[in-house]
Structure formats: structure tokens, C-alpha cells
């Protein structure tokens, strides 16, 4: 089985800014909730029952061919920092990290699949892909789900579908979501009306770490809310269509800002670059907001395209638990802010000021006809 240090040393493609068709869509995630027939659901189960269920679930998941040489641990064997690192990488939930006895995690080597055992439900499996690839993520996870259903007896009702702890997951047990980077909609004050329109058609909008979290770095999660009465394909198709529309609104907002107020855009990106390149103390919120603008600069041609990759890696590496793991010791908030600034300065050392790059690129270069700004 894979060691924790090996897992963390090799980030997945979806964490590192792989170029995709829609530059605003960072990742797509599919999560399926399942429970075992004849076993108390985790919230009602005593410790002994949870341990027994884990002994059934863990080997079944580890034996899947796709999970060969996976990272597999009981949560009680992980430190609080290690669990928080997995939360920051979106591999387990905050709620799951709070659990210990009778709970576990199995994570595929490339971190494209992860399984939470005895979270809110007995089994919560997820598939993550870069860009707008919800259908691809679902098809890959559905194969694993079918393999598991051949080994395990799921709690299933012919009328209600898969039975889950929370009624909002009843039916398909499906939660599909995409993480979007929407700085131009924020800068142009259009974000409110766009997100309101998304909410009106029954989709949920959440922050960086899901339900109950705020948007940081202009990052938003859009997901389905209903799981009952529709097929998985119908839910995913509608969500993909809406997310593509939001990404198009973001692209249009970027073009309009560059046409109508290019100096304001250049100023915002230049100031973010200046702070990140020269700050010696920076807190998480400020760093994320500035990295968001630097990422936008990479999309618009102020910086080389690989700057997007650099920003996405930094977005992960400057999180609180990642910093503590990097330092190898518990850090005070002040010390964290100093190390965060040091890491950012070091990674951006070879990134030149946006001035020269901006002068070399005219408006046409920044916005190719196909609308894809990744390689601009």
C-alpha cells in the first residue's frame, strides 16, 4: 500500500492546471453515496458496528483493479494534519476528517478516485477530472460502483432507489459538481445575477470546500441538488449545460473588461503580482485572492500560459495543513503567514513582470477565435 508521503508528493493532473476547453472550469467531480443492506447507517451505528462494516468495505474497495497499490488507512491512524491535508485536496470531506474509530479512506494512486468509508453513509466514492468532464468522471466511477455492487449488497428500494442517511441524497445517491474560477464576473459585478440564475433552476452554489464554506479566490462549486426521480445521465447533462453557460459568461466578461477597461485589469493583475512577489507576510485569504488574479493574468496573456498551472499548484500548497506538513511542525498563525509568503516568493521568482509581456500581445492574440484562452 502507498505511503502518505508518496501520495502527497505526486499531485493529480486535476490539481495542477491541466489545460482544458473551458479555462474557467478547473475540475469536475462525481460522488456516489451507498449503504449496506442489513447494517445500521454510520450515524446510528455503535463503534463495534462501524468497525465491522469497515472490515467488509475496505477489502472490497482495495480489491478493485483500479485501486491497485492505493493509499488505504483507517482515519484513526492518521494525524489531524494528515487528515486536513486530504480535506484541502478534496479527497475526503471535513465531516469525514472529524471521524476516527471505524472510518477509513482508500485513495487511488493518481487521486482520480477516492473512497470515504463510514462517513455520513457507509460508502461515499468520488471521481475527479480536470475541466468540464462530468460525464467522463461519472462513467469511470459507475464502472467501479458496478464492480462493488457485485460484491456488496447495497441498501436499495425499487421505488426510492439507493437508500441514504440524508433524504437529499436518496434515489441515485449522486452529487455532481464542478469547480469554477470566475474572477471577471466578480470584477464586473455580474457574479450575483449569474449565481442567482443558477440557484433558480435548482442547482447549488457553494464555496471552495463545499457546503457552508465561503468563496475564496473567486472559486465556486456548482452542483445538483435533486437526486430522486431523474436518471444520472439527465442530472449530469443538465449540469454540464449550465456550467458551460456560466463558463461562457465568464469568458465574455473577460473579453468585455479587456475591451472597455484594460488599464483596470492590468492594474489589478499587476498589483497582485507585486504583492505576491514581494510580500514577507501574507494570510491565506489575501494570497488566494491575489493568486486568482495572477491565474487570470495567465489566461489573458499577461503571463505565459504555464502560470495557470503554477497558480493551481500554489492554491493547494499554501493551505494551512499543507504548510504544517511542509514545515514538519505545528505553526502559529504568524509563522504560517511568513512561510506562505516565502513559498509564494520562491515559486514566482522566475515569473517576469506583466508589463513587457502585455506590451507584446495585442487584443487579437489574447482572444483566439475558438474562445479558448488557455494557450493565449
UniProtKB/TrEMBL annotation:
Annotated binding of ATP, by residue: 27-31, 90, 124, 175-179, 206-211
Bias type Polar residues, positions: 350-361
Keyword entries, A-Z: Allosteric enzyme, ATP-binding, Kinase, Nucleotide-binding, Transferase
SUPFAM superfamilies, per database record: Glutamine synthetase/guanido kinase
Top-level EC class as recorded in UniProt: transferase
Motif RDXXRA motif of the pArg binding pocket involved in allosteric regulation: chain residues: 336-341
Reactions accelerated catalytically: L-arginyl-[protein] + ATP = N(omega)-phospho-L-arginyl-[protein] + ADP + H(+)
Residue intervals passing through the bilayer: none
Keyword Nucleotide-binding among UniProt keywords: yes
Region feature Disordered, mapped onto this chain: 350-376
Activity control, per UniProt: Appears to be allosterically activated by the binding of pArg-containing polypeptides to the pArg-binding pocket localized in the C-terminal domain of McsB.
Segments forming domain Phosphagen kinase C-terminal: 24-253
EC code(s) of this entry: 2.7.14.1
InterPro entries, per the entry: Arg_Kinase, ATP-guanido_PTrfase, ATP-guanido_PTrfase_AS, ATP-guanido_PTrfase_cat, Gln_synth/guanido_kin_cat_dom
Entry's Gene Ontology molecular function annotations: protein arginine kinase activity
PANTHER family: ARGININE KINASE 1-RELATED, ARGININE OR CREATINE KINASE
Family statement: Belongs to the ATP:guanido phosphotransferase family.
Biological role stated in the UniProt entry: Catalyzes the specific phosphorylation of arginine residues in proteins.
Identification of the protein by name: Protein-arginine kinase
Gene: mcsB
